[in-house]
Amino acid sequence: xPASPETSLVLASSSPYxxxxxxxxxxxxxxxxxxxxxxxxxxxxxxxxxLRLATAKAAAVASHYPxxxxxxxxxxxxxxxxxxxxxxxxxxALAQLRAMSGRTITFYTALCLLNAxxxxxxxxxxxxxxTMRALGDAEIERYLAAETPYxxxxxxxxxxxxxxxVEKISGDDPNxxxxxxxxxxxxxxxxxxxALP
Length: 197
What we know:
- The chain has helices at 16-23, 46-62, 90-100, 137-147, 174-178, 182-191, and strands at 9-11, 30-31, 69-79, 82-84, 104-115, 121-132, 166-171.
- The longest helix has 17 residues, at 46-62.
- A hairpin with a 2-residue loop joins strand 3 and strand 4.
- The chain is α/β, with parallel strands linked by helices.
- Strands 1, 2, 3, 4, 5, 6 and 7 form a seven-stranded mixed sheet that branches.
- It has one domain (9-191): Maf protein.
C-alpha cells in the first residue's frame, strides 16, 4: 500500500553524518534526537547491542511523531572481542588508533524503520569490516591533527581523511560504515510504500 501524502519521515538521531546520508535520498525528513541509555548489557554481543539501541532510538522518538515513519540507527565497532567507542579526546583517539594498527575491525550498523502509526517495525544489522594499515605514531598524530575525529567510533573518519589509514574495506553497503545503511533503508522504505527513486 502506498504511503499517504501526509506521512512524514523522522530520523531519530542528532548525527550530522546520518543526516547527510539520509539527505542523499532526496526525501523530506525531520530530525529528533532520542534520549536513551546507550550502555551495553552484560555479555551483550555487538550486533545485538547495535540493534537494541537502533530500535530503542526509533521507539523513543515515535511518541513525538505518531503518524510518521521513524528511522533509528546505531553503530558498534568490534576489534577482536573489544568494543570500540567514540574516543572523545586526543589521548583516547591516539590509544585507539595504536591498538587498531594492522588489525581488522568489524563495524555493525543496525537499522530500525518503525511505522509509528501501525507499529510495524523492520530491522537489519549490516556489518562492514575495515583492515587498518600498520600505523606509526607520526602518521597517527598527523591524521589526528588534520581530522580531530573524536566523535567517531574507532577514531577513523573513513568518509574523509581517515581513508588514508585503511588497507581494505569489505561489506555490502559502504554507507553503513559512515552510519546509515542506505541500501537496506531504501528496501524498507519501499516496503512502506515510498517511491524510490
